[in-house]
Write a structure and sequence with these properties.
- By secondary structure, the chain is of the alpha/beta class.
- Helix content is 33%, strand content 17%.
- The chain folds into two domains: 244 residues, TIM Barrel (Alpha-Beta Barrel); 62 residues, Winged helix-like DNA-binding domain superfamily/Winged helix DNA-binding domain (Arc Repressor Mutant, subunit A).
- The chain has ten helices and ten strands.
- α7 links the parallel β7 and β8.
- Bound molecules: iron/sulfur cluster.
- The site of iron/sulfur cluster (SF4) has 12 residues, from loops.
Length: 313
């Protein structure tokens, strides 16, 4: 079987259906180091745009995937870092548009939209989902912990310019943290900025999976529900009562738990059993371990095994 390296899924996405993920940058290659990141801390934020994966490799994998008759509802540039750090992500979007009728979705933290070439390339996506967590420089520094070359005014300016230039569907995810960004005055500041950006839809979201830092706590559902009306257009709740969807997808923790109950598995085992990207599997397993449902066992091999808690000693 051909081994895909940049494609993962399709995985079910709450909002967009079955999504095939395209991961263009190495794990945690990001301009930000968000308090709430489910992938853990960014080792070193970067602004360096380059071809982290050769575009020809991505195109060959997509060609093979499409040629095999696979289907998905959406092809999503996302994964384990910031996709616009890839210098030629626009050529991947162009390939998708020219070779399939499946719509494309770009999930971006929007920090590079101040660059005209990034706006031009992002506009090739059918849909773009950007993020907003902060309302001024101080909250930007506290919550998103950006690369030193980024400032809040430039970040918002990039989103405003992009909205002017992009005629596709723009979705703004407003990500909230309890005790940090869910006070009324803070919510109003965020709503004012969101109104200026004028997206087609707004998703309100909060922490759902174990995040990087203990200080990133979920906003109570009643506060989220009350905040919806502050936004224009009225915000939709992107929480299931439980993600920055994986940052963007539903977990399948139950199935993983059943599998490891039959036999302990390495992350590679689980990735191949479920046809998921290594990073996706890792997030589910981390969550299970965090909840005390699973545990790591070091069996003397290169990779540790994950088994249900109380087994595999
Ligand atoms: S949450 Fe997204 S933007 Fe923030 S550090 Fe993680 S990958 Fe980067």
């Amino acid at each position: 079987m051909h081994k895909h390296t940049t494609l993962f899924g399709p995985v079910p996405s709450r909002r967009f259906g079955r999504s095939l993920g395209i991961d263009l940058v190495p794990f945690k290659t990001c301009t930000l180091n968000c308090l709430f990141c489910q992938l853990g801390r960014t080792p070193a934020t970067t602004m360096h745009r380059k071809d982290y994966v050769p575009v020809d490799t991505v195109r060959a994998e997509l060609e093979q995937w499409i040629g095999a008759g696979n289907r998905a509802d959406v092809l999503t540039l996302s994964g384990s870092g910031e996709p616009t750090l890839h210098a030629h992500f626009g050529r991947v979007l162009e390939y998708v548009a020219q070779n399939t009728d499946i719509p494309s979705l770009l999930l971006t933290n929007a920090t590079l939209l101040h660059l005209p070439e990034v706006r031009r390339d992002a506009a090739r996506a059918s849909m773009v989902k950007t993020s907003l967590c902060a309302w001024d420089q101080a909250s930007f520094a506290r919550i998103n912990r950006p690369h030193p070359d980024l400032d809040f005014a430039g970040f918002i300016g990039g989103q405003l310019r992009f909205r002017e230039e992009f005629s596709g569907q723009l979705i703004l995810e407003v990500f909230l943290l309890h005790g940090i960004s869910d006070a009324q005055s803070q919510l109003r500041n965020l709503a004012d900025i969101a109104r200026r950006i004028a997206p087609d839809r707004i998703h309100l979201n909060t922490v759902e999976r174990p995040p990087a830092e203990d200080s990133a706590r979920p906003v109570p559902m009643d506060v989220l529900a009350q905040a919806q009306d502050l936004f224009t257009p009225c915000a939709e709740l992107a929480v299931s009562g439980i993600r920055h969807e994986s940052p963007h997808f539903e977990a399948n923790e139950e199935a993983i738990l059943q599998t490891i109950s039959r036999r302990p598995c390495t992350l590679d085992d689980l990735a191949s059993i479920f046809g998921l990207h290594h990073n996706e599997v890792s997030k589910y397993v981390t969550s299970l371990v965090h909840k005390g449902k699973a545990q790591w066992t070091h069996g003397g091999s290169d990779q540790p095994y994950v088994s249900p808690s109380g087994h595999g000693d």
